[in-house]
TrEMBL record, chains A, B:
Pfam families: Bac_luciferase (PF00296). This is NtaA/DmoA family FMN-dependent monooxygenase. It comes from Amycolatopsis pithecellobii. Transmembrane segments: none annotated. FMN binds at residues 59, 98, 145, 149, 219-220. The keyword Oxidoreductase applies. Residues 29-387 form the Luciferase-like domain. GO terms for molecular function: monooxygenase activity; oxidoreductase activity, acting on paired donors, with incorporation or reduction of molecular oxygen. Residues 434-461 are annotated as: Disordered. Residues 441-452 have a biased composition (Basic and acidic residues). It is an enzyme of class 1 (oxidoreductase). The lineage of its organism: Bacteria, Bacillati, Actinomycetota, Actinomycetes, Pseudonocardiales.
Length: 461, 461
């Protein structure tokens, strides 16, 4: 045991019935409880008992017959409300949710996360996405990719200014003097930029973390520029150690260029452990789940990413029509994961069935099939090898797949000194080992100490 | 006991430190816990133990130094997140929250409430407001009053269509067939109106209540037209039995004109019980709380409603400059409550101090000062007299004022046969005795039965 050795960050990607597209069809999947708070809370408490850093709820804005409707791999409810409900039913685990900067008013978003951070006692995290779909639901034309990030950058200025509009010592509860909150500690903001005009202050006192932890998963140039400016946690899908290490190195370089400490940014590649009592049993389990995929809907899910290739009419065990695939540099969406599929189809010559089984399993995230010890070994190799600061864990199936993670995998990592036995702090920022904004958020002269709240990128207000 | 006699609806207006503007200054107010989920949940569970129908969280969009900052009478966190957090910590009580139709994307709002209804097992309620402020926070010019309601009307069409886009039997969990949800039970919507263009379906399965209960509190002509079309619960501020009865009669007339059953709309005037062991003790308590008001901020709060009258420089015990007051028909805001203040100033010749004490107490809602028995008597008189279907209870101070309500007042009403001893159902709609959309939401021929989901006002989709 090396209690002072570097610790992995472990995040649970929430999926109630299993992230593998075939998982919900297993007899014990409890898919009937997909939309219940009871089952969701049970899963998250299991992660909390294992002392995981956080749970993460992903979110897509539209309804996708292929990806969502037919495969309830993603949590079906809205993230912010779900995380708020979990706030009262958990005590320590971080609560990270996706909200799009393209379709939510910044003043509203600032309120949702300030509230969530209060309600959870400092455990809120925001996965910032710019959404590649969504316009149809909001009566807006789809904005070009880089413009979505330009909008997102201004958005972050606005919400940070709102979160910083109350000093940490604004609320004084001075009964005798009749002052609940000091007006001179609450600051007006008047943001006027190309995308947003927002007056403040916020109408919610400063929350325990000052602002939510920022997670981000952009993989394009614009996405990485944005992520290296704002991100505390970086989610990424990487096929192998070498590319994960390259990504992390590149990313840390950009963080340094921004004048930030790379140690304050946690890069978490996705990892799906498929665990069995033996390597062979794990492989059999992986095949068994994959056999449960519904072929036609898996085809649609694949085409949702790759574009319409007429795959339904082709031989499942034949090659893909690679000549119809867009080159990755022309792809406007989740590019890293597209690149992985592209590579498998073009260079590794996967058949249609092989490729859709690959995607149905972990959607481009790294699958590791073996015993808990073997999975732990691989995670340690990535971690020690500079490929990851921890992992975003995708649970293939439930309850078995989660039991294997919390009951077998995490104890091994703990035993080996790579993962905590107890939470040391109470906030998500503390779990992740990130700077905590000073409790007063003020410098020695009593002025707001903007640096201590890590908002150096926010224009003065 | 008359178990089958008509029952009052009782709603708790949530205030953590007391709704009376002087209440938070009392030594036992626990104002230090204002933003904690723990204290909020404790209060709501106390209301649930008393079997109240619902708790309601009001919301204003801006930050008002006078009304909010200095008097933490209103819940300081964002309603939807707070109610979601309460969903997991309560079992039966309804959860009603204010969200503005003017500044929230309908697709987002539909998701928040569908989620809240799932998370709470059918206890969600939405207090629909059009907001008289808010433009500054959203970079928008203030819309004229009646246009806000025109927008709200289209808004309701959109969100109801989204909530109705999944039939109740869409999710089939058919493992063998590989179908989680039936595509033919999920309906596309393509709303295109003057204010909104929204594509659907929603990306969340139909929730237990189908949609949240609709609360509404508009008092203008446009507001009442809107409320009589959509409202299940009507909040109102009424100074006395006669005017409350007039309001309820008028309102029920309008409901009838819309082809709806007036029995399906619950009119709940606000009522603040200030309870003491004797009438005299109650009066002393009322004075004691009123004495705790901070005079300058109470003046600002009054001028926030009445307009700038230079009251700070006038003799507190002199008359108001009534010649500067706008006639009620020119007032663009919460008109009923303005009318009450106007009447007290102009016709009852209240001094400045009397008027601000009046407003600081219950902000225009009906205060009843006396023993629990006397308060119960007055509530029964209003209820039997056709002035109310129940009440929106404003707690003057906590914990004492809430203890008096749950420990003394409610038991008397129960004893007299006016209030339930146990919840009969599990959803808010059931508590209120409102129609519940059929579990399948389909007619005998298997087609969506729109009437049973009470969406007759929604255009066909
Ligand atoms: C682990 C992980 C989780 C993600 N979650 C979401 C999500 O919840 N919603 C979403 O719209 N995109 C999500 N994405 C996609 C990214 O946020 C991003 O939109 C995508 O990688 C495209 O970024 P780019 O435009 O910078 O290439 C996720 C990506 C990863 C790797
Ligand atoms: C009990 C009660 C609660 C209310 N809650 C809110 C609220 O939370 N937010 C808000 O903006 N207005 C609130 N109002 C104001 C009304 O919704 C409405 O905006 C106001 O009466 C003006 O309506 P009108 O424009 O139709 O006259 C409330 C009114 C009452 C009586």
């Amino acid at each position: 045991m090396m209690p002072d050795s570097p610790q992995m960050c472990l995040n649970l990607f929430l999926s109630v019935a299993g992230y593998h597209a075939g998982a919900w069809r297993r007899p014990d999947s409890r898919v009937e409880e997909l939309t219940t708070l009871g089952r969701t809370a049970e899963i998250v408490r299991q992660a909390e008992d294992a002392k995981l850093d956080a749970v993460f709820i992903a979110d897509l804005l539209g309804w996708h017959d292929n990806d969502f409707g037919k495969h309830p791999r993603m949590h079906p409810l809205e993230p912010i409300t779900t995380l708020a409900a979990l706030a009262g039913l958990t005590e320590r685990i971080g609560l990270i949710g996706t909200v799009s900067t393209s379709y939510t008013e910044p003043y509203n978003l600032a309120r949702y996360f300030a509230s969530l951070d209060h309600l959870s006692g400092g455990r809120a995290g925001w996965n910032i996405v710019t959404s590649y779909g969504g316009g149809e639901q909001f009566g807006r034309d789809r904005e070009p990719h880089d413009e979505r990030y330009a909008r997102a950058t201004e958005y972050l200025e606005v919400v940070c200014a709102l979160w910083d509009s109350w000093d940490a010592d604004a609320v004084v509860n001075d009964r005798a003097g009749g002052t609940w909150a000091r007006a001179d500690r609450i600051h007006r903001i008047d943001h006027a930029g190309p995308y947003y005009q927002v007056a403040g202050p916020l109408n919610i006192p400063r929350s325990p973390q000052g602002r939510p932890v920022f997670a981000q998963a952009g993989s394009s140039e614009a996405g990485m520029a944005f992520g290296s400016t704002f991100g505390d946690v970086i989610f990424t899908a990487q096929p192998d150690l070498a590319s994960a290490r390259r990504f992390r190195e590149t990313f840390r370089g950009r963080v340094r260029v921004r004048g930030r400490d790379p140690g304050s940014v946690k890069v978490l590649p996705g990892l799906m452990p498929i665990i069995g009592p033996s390597e062979r049993a794990a492989r059999e389990l992986a095949d068994e789940i994959a056999d449960a995929i519904d072929y036609p809907s898996a085809v649609r899910a694949l085409e949702w990413v790759l574009g319409d290739l007429g795959l339904a009419d082709r031989d499942p065990d034949g090659p893909l029509p690679v000549e119809l695939l867009k080159p990755p540099e022309e792809f406007d969406g989740g590019r890293t994961r597209y690149e992985i599929l592209y590579r498998l189809a073009v260079h590794e010559r996967y058949t249609i069935r092989e490729l859709l089984r690959y995607r149905a399993r972990a959607a481009g995230h790294h699958p590791v099939i073996g015993t808990a010890g073997q999975v732990a070994e691989e995670m340690i190799e990535w971690f020690d090898g500079g490929a990851a600061d921890g992992f975003n864990l995708l649970v293939p199936h439930l309850p078995g797949g989660l039991d294997a993670i919390t009951g077998e995998l995490v104890p091994i990592l703990r035993e080996r000194g790579y993962f905590r036995a107890e939470y040391a702090g109470t906030t998500l920022r503390e779990h992740l080992g990130l700077d905590v904004p000073g409790p007063a958020g003020r410098d020695d002269a009593g002025r707001p100490d903007r640096a201590s709240s890590r908002s150096t990128f926010v224009k003065g207000i």
